[in-house]
Amino acid sequence: MNEIQYGKVYLVGAGPGDPDLLTVKAQRLLSECDALIYDSLIPQEFLNLVSDSCICHFVGKRRGHHSTPQLKINELLLEMAKKHSCLVRLKGGDPFLFGRGAEEGSYLTKHGVPVEVVPGVTSGIAVPAYFGIPVTHRLAGSSVTFVTGHEGIDKLRPNVNWRALAKASDGLVIYMGVHNLELIVSELIAGGLDPYTSAAVIQQGTIVGQRLIKTSLEQLSLTVRQRKYLSPSIVIIGSVVDYQVESCAPQPGAVTMPIQF
Length: 261
Ligand SMILES: C[S@@+](CC[C@H](N)C(=O)[O-])C[C@H]1O[C@@H](n2cnc3c(N)ncnc32)[C@H](O)[C@@H]1O
Known about the structure:
This protein is α/β, with parallel strands linked by helices. The protein folds into two domains: 8-121, 3-Layer(aba) Sandwich (Cobalt-precorrin-4 Transmethylase, domain 1), CATH 3.40.1010; 124-243, Tetrapyrrole methylase, C-terminal domain (Methyltransferase, Cobalt-precorrin-4 Transmethylase, Domain 2). It is built from eight helices and ten strands. Helix 6 (162-168) links the parallel strand 6 and strand 7. Helix 6 packs across helix 7 (181-190) and helix 7 packs antiparallel against helix 8.
């Protein structure tokens, strides 16, 4: 019986956008790989790092279009691992934080494909940091929760219990939260969070065009709507926002092409 020989798949985190936040390992793998499968939120600079002969596939979501179904991505990865010895699966931020990296990794290892995970700089920490906002501070409590504000109908797990979170965590870092912000804010306040709690939203952090809103929890969704903040944005709620290192100037990395939203 002929056993299939698979190449190695690297599940690589690309960081939040600034090319300078790509890890040394990710950069090396991009220059060495013979195939690349990448998502939305990957700037053009990253794609320029691969060799001319590298086979590249985009599987992310373009504005107004559906993203490639997860099963199709898994199958594509498996198919390409048959033909390529070094395949990079590049994902925004960190592949294991709201990135479905584990789903893809498990699918591949179940089929006998060797997989290695290369962590990335997650947007939930780096994006506020570019504006000097820490996600923890000794004077702002002892806990922070990373939570998704977007739960698709295909989700197998229950909805986020925002009312419980209002009391359970000193700080919240919300990914994919701008669309559901009105509901999130009203649930947090209903759960007992002070409406005057500090909050911030950062759109397109670490990238040219990044912008920041700082306001109170109760003003948050109205301000976001008025200023037309869109995805990708990170929402930070809690008194950590008051400990912003003010002199920290935003240092967006050069990005020659807008990322795909
Ligand atoms: C599917 S999640 C992926 C998160 C990613 N795995 C990470 O670790 O950053 C996509 C969400 O991450 C956040 N995000 C990613 N890049 C961002 C950026 N440059 N600025 C603001 N938010 C960003 C947004 O909330 C966006 O909707």
